[in-house]
Amino acid sequence: MSTAEATVSLNADQIAAFHRDGFLSLPALTSPDEVALLREVYDRLFASTGDTFRAGDHLGLATPDEDGRETLPQILNPETYAPELLDTQARVNALAVAGQLLGPDVTRAGDHAIMKPAGHGAPTPWHQDEAYWHPGYDHQAVSFWMPLQDTTVEMGCMQFVPGSHALDVRPHRLANPDAHALELEPAEAEAADGRAVACPLPAGGVTIHHCRTVHYAGPNRSGVPRRAYIMGFQVAPTPVETPHDYYWQRPEWYASEQA
Ligand SMILES: O=C(O)CCC(=O)C(=O)O
């Protein structure tokens, strides 16, 4: 799979665009052959039963539909269950590009996978990734969001608010009491909607976004599952003197670290 040499790099204009907008879109992070392999791994993981996964690694980001079907399943740490995900050209390329954006001290953060089932995949609400994270730090991280099939707006491609990575973490709330997603407060979400830039992509393309960039992905109205595989990279977070007041987080999320 991986040649260990990166085959993708950013030019100066792309690096400047990322720092200006907080996101960037590339048409290919890896080869069609590797995308086909990744799709097999992905479908195997999503076909596995819940007890394959450690507690909390298989979550519903939205509530099931009226027929009881999952509408936005997420697998955290997929590489734990499919170690071949650690040895891909996509990862080599992503790490090299992340280094161009965040500097040479960049390291791997968590991977995850979010599936929008054909025809009934739910929207992913407007949010900033950092709203989920430890309030005792400021974070510097990027996510590489790679679809494993061509992905249009109607299938739920990523959408971003340009420049929003320069904001603080905005007020969020739990999307509903039973699901695991956070969403921006309604007035902020409405404002984001009016400024969104949608990024349709071919299979194996990638969007890259900063952890404070406001983003969303719509429902999947197509007849094809929308498979997204996401690799995260970061530099060491900076401790803050007074922890941020992320009142929307569930109390158990970071309880042990803050005790
Ligand atoms: O795949 C999705 O629907 C949303 C992904 C996302 O929010 C993220 O990668 O931060």
Q: How would you describe the overall organization of this protein?
A:
The protein is α+β, with helices and mostly antiparallel strands and 259 residues long. The chain has a single domain, classed as Jelly Rolls (Sandwich). Helix content is 22%, strand content 27%. The chain has helices at residues 12-21, 32-47, 78-81, 89-102, 186-194, 255-258, and strands at 23-26, 58-60, 73-76, 107-116, 124-127, 137-147, 158-160, 172-174, 182-184, 197-199, 206-210, 215-217, 226-239. The strands form three sheets. A seven-stranded antiparallel β-sheet has the order 1-11-6-13-4-3-2. β8 (172-174) and β9 (182-184) form a beta hairpin. Bound molecules: 2-oxoglutaric acid. 2-oxoglutaric acid binds at residues 114, 124, 129, 143, 145, 156, 215, 217, 228, 230.
Largest β-sheet summary: 7 strands, antiparallel
What's the arrangement of strands in the largest beta sheet?
A: 1-11-6-13-4-3-2
- The CATH superfamily bears the name q2cbj1_9rhob like domain
Mean of the pLDDT scores? 95
Residues in helix, %? 10-25%
Count of distinct strands: 13
CATH third-tier fold name: Jelly Rolls
Taking all Cα atoms into account, the compactness measure Rg is 17 Å
Distinct ligand kinds: 2-oxoglutaric acid
CATH architecture: Sandwich
- Classify the secondary structure makeup into a structural class: alpha+beta
What's the level 1 CATH class? Mainly Beta
Low-confidence stretches: none
Order of helices and strands: HEHEEHHEEEEEEHEEEEH
Write down the domain tally.
1
Distance between the termini: 43 Å
The rough form would be described as globular
Strand percentage lies at: 25-35%
Q: How many helical elements?
A: 6
